[in-house]
Design a protein that fits this description.
Elements: E1 7-14, H1 20-29, E2 35-38, H2 49-52, E3 62-67, E4 72-75, H3 78-88, H4 101-131, H5 139-163, H6 174-188, H7 195-205, H8 208-213
Parallel strand pairs: 1-2
Antiparallel strand pairs: 1-3, 3-4
């Protein structure tokens, strides 16, 4: 287990290429032993009574933690998982300490940006392009959100990555784990495949944590 880790056991409920992959990547980066339990959300397993008892929001990820003092906790939001895991392992230096407020604020901002604003844009595209019954899909909603990616999100990310190798500077942080998943999501829509983002994707994909976290990506069903 990671040096000085307060976590005795971790269980991640997961589906390939979903938001749970971002948490899986960080668990691997932190060298936290964990069990991965696959939830076939595409085929409705997330709506089963057994899973709804764990997460009434019927989504992955779910992260169940047992701490070294015997206490237990279940987390349902990937952004909270990213920050919490990184904070519990300060020696890994994947999130700046409070004593460095500028650097920490930037990492927290990028985790929140990915977990809220960017997630919402990407999810709306997926709903109206792939998941909703055809009768209720809105091509206008898809186009509106694709335009937001191209005109608003992409320039912000390109500006950051033209200045340094990682999303918050020259050092890999926990924010790169959540950005990695959303970048893959964007690239599946044909956005972010050039220039600084293309080079960034290659750096991410070279990390053993990315390779392990996305080793099941071919099992994703649209």
């Amino acid at each position: 287990m990671t040096q000085s880790s307060p976590i005795d056991q971790a269980t991640l409920y997961h589906y390939p290429l979903s938001r749970s992959a971002r948490v899986r990547m960080l668990l691997i980066e932190l060298d936290i032993p964990h069990e991965v339990r696959r939830v076939d959300v595409v085929r409705g397993e997330g709506l089963s009574p057994a899973f709804m008892a764990i997460n009434p929001n019927h989504a992955v990820p779910v992260l169940q933690l047992r701490y070294s003092d015997g206490s237990e906790q279940t987390l349902l939001e990937s952004g909270a998982m990213i920050i919490h895991l990184a904070d519990l392992h300060p020696h890994a230096e994947l999130i700046p300490p409070i004593s460095d407020p500028v650097a920490r604020g930037d990492v927290l901002q990028m985790v929140a940006f990915n977990a809220s604003h960017l997630d919402t844009i990407l999810w709306n595209i997926r709903l109206h392009r792939d998941l909703f019954p055809k009768a209720v899909r809105s091509e206008a909603t898809v186009q509106f959100n694709m335009d937001k990616l191209e005109r608003e999100v992409l320039p912000q990310l390109e500006a950051r990555l033209s200045r340094h190798d990682w999303i918050c500077g020259n050092t890999f942080t926990a924010a790169d784990c959540i950005m990695a998943q959303n970048l893959g999501w964007m690239r599946s829509y044909g956005i972010g495949r050039k220039g600084a983002l293309r080079a960034y994707a290659k750096r991410l994909q070279a990390r053993p944590s990315w390779q392990e976290a996305y080793s099941d990506m071919r099992e994703f069903e649209r």
